[in-house]
Design a protein that fits this description.
This protein is an alpha+beta fold. 33% of the residues lie in helices and 23% in strands. It has 2 domains: 91 residues, no CATH class; 216 residues, Deoxyribonuclease I, Chain A (4-Layer Sandwich), CATH 3.60.10.10.
Length: 321
């Protein structure tokens, strides 16, 4: 049977070369996106989850191309497969019911500074201009801790845990701490920091975290366990909670399900997906830096900051408590 005689999903002769490429892209992107619906399982399969924005873009372009080539059956398949990553984007582009907040503005900043980044003075200047109420910085080395000391002028309360490598941190606040606690966890005893703040007479819990990236099965399980423990802690808090940091997971990763089930909301919902890691490269840019909130807290604005020498972009969220 010749190609012209094939029916259904077969590729006709005219434009067959381009059509085959588009079909392969549809099957690859669509299959990878659908694999992301499988809960748990092999850690390499889990790595299919973060790139839903890329799958959506590839499938959308393939749909247009296949329609242009009049490959109707393959175009229909691309349209159906496009629903999988598209459904994950809906909360980020559709406004939801935002809980009513109070009258107190509260700005939160989270920025993975990148341990080897040398643009420390520029980062400090930008943070001063941004003027957050609370700032959390993963990947703080002793050199970074020394540079960030200048922030004490406006944020005099801090928890510093600098380390060589990528798992130190610093937390600065304008408001005094009612309580503070560091919890070593995971394979590298990576500390999670928890502080309680008094904001206008309300207790607000802030948790800063930076679990391991899922670069192996053991590291993926370790990240998942840290996020599960964080979810358990958040669930026990009756009042407002803010969870900030580089969580090494996108919103649609399996490891984030217990976090959302604990009552946390993504500050980006209704404001667009904002890639924060490898953001210069559209093929790999993904949102793994988060400011998540729980309780009667309203989000007024959510934005990403400029290029400051890190492979991450800062996240700045304006809340109303």
């Amino acid at each position: 049977m010749s190609a012209r005689e094939c029916k259904g999903l077969a590729v006709p002769v005219r434009g067959a070369g381009w059509a085959r490429l588009l079909v392969l892209a549809v099957l690859g992107a669509g299959g990878a996106s659908l694999a992301g619906f499988v809960d748990g399982g092999w850690w390499l399969l889990e790595l299919c989850r973060p790139f839903q924005m890329q799958y959506l873009g590839v499938l959308g372009l393939c749909l247009i191309g296949l329609v242009g080539l009049r490959r109707w059956a393959w175009a229909a398949l691309a349209g159906v497969l496009l629903l999988a990553p598209g459904s994950r984007m809906v909360p980020y582009y559709r406004g939801g019911n935002e809980p009513a907040g109070g009258m107190i503005p509260f700005r939160v900043l989270s920025f993975n500074v990148l341990s080897r980044n040398q643009r420390r003075a520029e980062v400090v200047d930008w943070v001063r201009e941004t003027d957050p109420d609370l700032a959390f910085f993963p990947e703080v080395t002793p050199e970074w801790a020394a540079a960030l000391e200048k922030l004490r002028a406006t944020m005099p309360y801090q928890v510093l845990e600098p380390r060589e490598g990528n798992f130190g941190f610093a937390l600065f606040s304008k408001h005094p701490f009612l309580a503070e606690r560091e919890v070593p966890s995971g394979l590298l005893d990576v500390a999670t920091v928890r502080v309680e703040l008094d904001i206008g007479g309300r207790k607000v819990v802030l948790i800063g975290a930076h679990p391991l990236p899922p670069l192996s099965g053991a590291m993926a399980r370790d990240r998942d366990q840290v996020l599960l423990e964080l979810a358990d802690e958040v669930r026990q808090e009756p009042g407002p909670v803010v969870l900030a940091g580089d969580l090494n997971a996108t919103p649609w990763c399996h490891a984030m399900k217990p976090v959302y089930a604990a009552g946390l909301r993504d500050s980006r919902w209704g404001r667009g997906v904002r890639a924060t890691w490898r953001w210069r490269n559209p093929f790999f840019a993904i949102p793994i830096d988060h400011v998540l909130i729980k309780g009667a807290v309203a989000v007024e604005n959510c934005q990403t900051g400029p290029d400051l020498g890190s492979d991450h972009r800062p996240v700045v969220v304006d809340l109303r408590l």
